[in-house]
């Protein structure tokens, strides 16, 4: 009888590859493979692919090309994961509770029909976020609202503060995956969580300074400096932290802005206004989805220059991860202008890694690309950009680039050095 063989067999970390093979088919038999995954709100994500078994009656996704007509085609060992799509529009796959794994369901059907033919085999697999031995420590010290993830083993570990964007709350999934690679990571909430501000009107860097000092003083965090990792709005907050606060050695930005965006930023007697925007520049397509890439003003012109964050004051090294099809804002332009500004002030040139075909939400590996979803500040679905296969490949590479960058500047290890846990 046909059967599904998975490696690892029962459980893997979400950012690890999963090998999928179907055995026991007839030679050259046509089958459809389907994956299903439900998020914590009950939203269903699915992907399917059509295959023809080899002469040995086997379909090995690492060698067998998917045929046209499914969610992807060609040899794509991880296609059944990165091609997962929501069954309702404008839903993005996120992990809310990192202590429970996602349950992945894999089914093998006869033929290439619509609807699929007879069920031939099935398997379940857990995609986990919390590696065995990683400690999850809720942090409520002073004003800090955060969760600290510490790797297995005896520290101290290189420390990183992880910030997400305008969605608010306290996303932990990237921080806990990064902790499984040997970093002590503080997932930090900054609004829309517990007793923190409910909206994005203004932010005070003193709050973020508390978090930096918490990490610098932690016995499990290796000094003398820590790293910052931010995506989207979290990116410009990280640049602001690096520009004004002490103790930051490495700052990695995923599609971040070099101008302060969306809220007033205050630190002591300094105020940085948000970059101006013009809602008339929003383009809405027939489906009601907005393209907001041209909404923000240019931070090099007129009064908007005051929103440019003085990153030349930073002691930190910088890494810019750029999706060249980012439709949220002009990430590549921001990275290039940040680089010019640093070099004009005699600072080291930042690393800029550009990914053609990648959109705004560059997540850890194997998260499916979200093409469009609701934007809290715009109040309607917006397009995020990206082409699924290129976007997925970018996520795999960016994850390695970020870890190598932090190892180099927080541990003094050469890039590509093996990570000893």
TrEMBL record:
<dbReference type="InterPro" id="IPR016662">
    <property type="entry name" value="Acyl-CoA_thioEstase_long-chain"/>
</dbReference>
<dbReference type="InterPro" id="IPR014940">
    <property type="entry name" value="BAAT_C"/>
</dbReference>
<feature type="active site" description="Charge relay system">
    <location>
        <position position="232"/>
    </location>
</feature>
<dbReference type="Pfam" id="PF08840">
    <property type="entry name" value="BAAT_C"/>
</dbReference>
<keyword id="KW-0276">Fatty acid metabolism</keyword>
<feature type="active site" description="Charge relay system">
    <location>
        <position position="360"/>
    </location>
</feature>
<dbReference type="InterPro" id="IPR042490">
    <property type="entry name" value="Thio_Ohase/BAAT_N"/>
</dbReference>
<keyword id="KW-0443">Lipid metabolism</keyword>
<dbReference type="GO" id="GO:0006631">
    <property type="term" value="P:fatty acid metabolic process"/>
</dbReference>
<dbReference type="GO" id="GO:0047617">
    <property type="term" value="F:fatty acyl-CoA hydrolase activity"/>
</dbReference>
<dbReference type="GO" id="GO:0006637">
    <property type="term" value="P:acyl-CoA metabolic process"/>
</dbReference>
<dbReference type="InterPro" id="IPR006862">
    <property type="entry name" value="Thio_Ohase/aa_AcTrfase"/>
</dbReference>
<protein>
    <submittedName>
        <fullName>ACOT1 thioesterase</fullName>
    </submittedName>
</protein>
<feature type="active site" description="Charge relay system">
    <location>
        <position position="326"/>
    </location>
</feature>
<comment type="similarity">
    <text>Belongs to the C/M/P thioester hydrolase family.</text>
</comment>
<dbReference type="Pfam" id="PF04775">
    <property type="entry name" value="Bile_Hydr_Trans"/>
</dbReference>
<feature type="domain" description="BAAT/Acyl-CoA thioester hydrolase C-terminal">
    <location>
        <begin position="204"/>
        <end position="411"/>
    </location>
</feature>
<dbReference type="InterPro" id="IPR029058">
    <property type="entry name" value="AB_hydrolase_fold"/>
</dbReference>
<feature type="domain" description="Acyl-CoA thioester hydrolase/bile acid-CoA amino acid N-acetyltransferase">
    <location>
        <begin position="15"/>
        <end position="141"/>
    </location>
</feature>
């Amino acid at each position: 009888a046909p059967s599904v063989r998975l490696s690892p067999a029962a459980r893997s970390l979400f950012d690890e590859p999963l090998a999928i093979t179907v055995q026991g088919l007839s030679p050259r038999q046509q089958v459809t493979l389907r994956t299903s995954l439900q998020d914590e709100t009950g939203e269903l994500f699915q992907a399917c692919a059509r295959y023809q078994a080899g002469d040995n009656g086997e379909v090995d996704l690492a060698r067998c090309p998917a045929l046209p007509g499914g969610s992807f085609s060609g040899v794509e060992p991880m296609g059944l994961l990165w091609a997962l799509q929501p069954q309702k529009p404008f839903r993005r796959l996120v992990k809310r509770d990192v202590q429970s794994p996602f349950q992945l369901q894999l089914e093998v059907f006869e033929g290439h029909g619509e609807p699929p033919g007879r069920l031939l085999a099935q398997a379940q697999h857990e995609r986990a976020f919390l590696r065995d031995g990683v400690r999850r420590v809720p942090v409520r010290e002073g004003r800090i609202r955060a969760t600290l993830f510490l790797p297995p083993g005896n520290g101290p570990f290189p420390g990183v503060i992880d910030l997400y964007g305008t969605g608010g709350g306290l996303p932990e999934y990237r921080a806990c995956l990064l902790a499984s690679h040997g970093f002590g990571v503080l997932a930090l909430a900054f609004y829309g969580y517990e007793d923190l501000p409910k909206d994005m009107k203004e932010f005070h860097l003193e709050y973020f300074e508390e978090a930096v000092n918490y990490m610098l003083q932690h016995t499990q965090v290796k000094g003398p400096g820590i790293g910052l990792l931010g995506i989207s709005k979290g990116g410009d907050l990280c640049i602001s932290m690096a520009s004004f606060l002490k103790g930051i050695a490495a700052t990695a930005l995923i599609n971040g802005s070099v101008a302060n965006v969306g809220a007033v930023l205050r630190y002591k007697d300094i105020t940085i206004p948000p970059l101006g925007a013009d809602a008339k520049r929003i383009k809405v397509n027939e489906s009601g989805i907005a393209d907001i890439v041209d909404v923000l003003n240019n931070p090099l012109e007129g009064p908007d220059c005051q929103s440019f964050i003085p990153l030349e004051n930073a002691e930190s090294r910088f890494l810019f991860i750029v999706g060249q099809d980012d439709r949220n804002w002009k990430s590549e332009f921001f990275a290039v202008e940040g680089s010019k500004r640093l070099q004009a002030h005699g600072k080291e040139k930042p690393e800029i890694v550009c990914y053609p075909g990648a959109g705004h939400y560059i997540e850890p590996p194997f998260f499916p690309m979200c093409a469009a979803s609701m934007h809290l500040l715009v109040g309607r679905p917006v397009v995020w950009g990206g082409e699924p296969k290129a976007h997925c490949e970018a996520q795999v590479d960016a994850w390695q680039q970020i870890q190598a960058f932090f190892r180099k500047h927080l541990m003094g290890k050469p890039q590509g050095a093996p990570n000893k846990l």
